[in-house]
Amino acid sequence: xxxxxxxxxxxxxxxxxxxxxxxxxxxxYVDQPPLIALIAxxxxxxxxxxxxxxxxxxAIAATATVLVTGRLARRLGGGVFAQVLAxxxxxxAPFYLAVGNxxxxxxxxxxxxxxxxxxxxxxxxxxxxxxxxxxxxxxxxGLVNKYTMFFFLGACVVAIAVTPARRSLVRPGFALxxxxxxxxxxxxxxxxxxxxxxxxxxxxxAAAHKNVVVGPLTFYLQQILMMNPLAAPIWIAGLASxxxxxxxxxxxxxxxxxxxxxxxxxxxxxxxxxPIYPVLFAAGATALAERLERVRWATVxxxxxxxxxxLAIAPEAYPLLPLPEFLRYESVLxxxxxxxxxxxxxxxxQNFADMLGWNTLVTTVxxxxxxxxxxxxxxxxxxxxxxxxxSAIDFFGPKYxxxxxxxxxxxxxxxxxxxxxxxxxxxxxxxxxxxxTEFRNVEQVAIYRDRYVLPDFNNLPIYKCTxxxxxxxxxxxxxxxxx
Length: 483
Prior knowledge:
Elements (H helix, E strand, L loop, with lengths): L12 H10 L12 H13 L3 H4 L1 H20 L4 H12 L2 H6 L5 H22 L2 H17 L2 H14 L10 H23 L3 H12 L6 H11 L5 H13 L5 H17 L10 H16 L5 H20 L5 H10 L17 H4 L4 H13 L3 H6 E5 L2 H10 L8 E3 L3 H5 L8 E5 L3 H4 L3 E10 L11 E9 L3 H4 L8
Helix pairs in contact: 1-2, 1-21, 4-5, 4-7, 4-15, 5-15, 5-16, 7-8, 8-9, 8-10, 9-14, 13-14, 13-15, 19-21
């Protein structure tokens, strides 16, 4: 399902940014660990700039997450029906449909969390050193994929400590797993320390200015929406069965409660908890299957309901429909109940808007650049307000003869000015008043419009800035914007 529509709509904002990071490989980045850049590098090497190639690994990760969920249901005693129920719930959950279609860290996070839990259960049973080693490697990969893995692993260790599984915490194999995970993540932590822990600056700024913070009731209601309301009985039954039963995964129920409370206290985005659900689906399907099997029609009706409901929501989660058909569909069924950021909504929801308009942006900038004199073009540099715009210029711009972009946003700030003189600057997304503090001449030469992008990123003037008051290198530190 994911691969069939992998080429729809276009490159997403973060995908373009990760491609840029892949072209500047490092042990760390301002706003993420290095694994996603390595994955993007591998995809570019194997498949070029094909969207299908770029999104193949996320689709495989989504498939593997479904399969591991089924294996967990089997391990918890579930038969074929329980395994099918668990896998259907995960496969058609809106969150997993959405992230499985994009090359982002979120695409790999559920597999790494679920894989770590699965490996711990197996290692706990057998005390096998190869399994402990695999657990350490999986946890380490999770840490260099996204730092939220620290919160997940911390919640798991605390939860394990209050259940009989605590015996594993003093085993040599567990110490080996911890050592391997720390060894894998150490270089990126070293990079963060060397650069003054910029990830913390990003998190603080995002919490203050960008992210939507919700209360407990809304937080848990949105968990139900992300996982498909029709599938809620499965994972809620799983949470109850883990907390109240004697399963070897009982600690996972405590980890869910603890992690959700931590995220609430920190004001985290609601989707940060989403990777934790496959184990709950496996446990819940196992608990519900026996009851449903007592009523023969229920074993057909409930899975059918999950499929129908999941497919009904699917066009809102990932590009299942061509854009014109989606807009007509959205007029009938618009389920924008989950809002992650404070940007006002546009014609299409943010998850799709971030895939649209990049070609229009680049051709608009290219038109402004083409109107410069040859002497101005030799000096010109393109300054963008955010990494999405800069990444789009760098990705699509070469075929229009555009110079590389610069930006003060996140890791682009560390890339610097590229040696540009700053005598001629095409600036996108900046207020004229701010530009006039650095340039004597600021002239609007174009405007970028695209009806499908978010309002905050639409109707952006493009200014030609000349006669700098100071050299670009002098005022560049003031362009720094970590968020």
